[in-house]
Amino acid sequence: MRRTLVVAALVVTLLIVAAVARVALSVFLVDATPSWVADGTDAHGDPLPEGAVARLGTGRLVAYPRG
């Protein structure tokens, strides 16, 4: 009885590990490069500094007129 329970727990654990590994591989092994990396702009179309591949935040500043 105890041996059957240990084997069942081991099989369930292996199934969970296999499912997590499959999801991790599908997330981290993406071959497609975003289009804005190729042309030197960020997701908004703003130019990136030389050598940069992404921007944290945005480079846009909005000035609202007073009055």
Describe this structure in words.
The chain has 67 residues and is mainly alpha-helical. 48% of the residues lie in helices and 0% in strands. The protein is built from two helices and no strands. The chain is elongated, with a radius of gyration of 24 Å. The N and C termini lie far apart (82 Å).
Which key features would you list for this structure?
67 residues, mainly alpha, 2 helices, elongated
What best-fitting shape do the alpha-carbon axes yield? elongated
Secondary-structure-derived class:
mainly alpha
Cα Rg: 24 Å
Number of helices: 2
Largest sheet: none
Helix content: 40-55%
Summed over residues and divided by their number, the pLDDT gives a mean of: 79
Number of strands: 0
Which residues form runs of ≥5 with pLDDT under 50?
none
Give the structure's gist in a few sentences.
It is built from two helices and no strands. The chain is mainly α and 67 residues long.
List the helices and strands and how they pair.
Elements: H1 2-28, H2 35-39
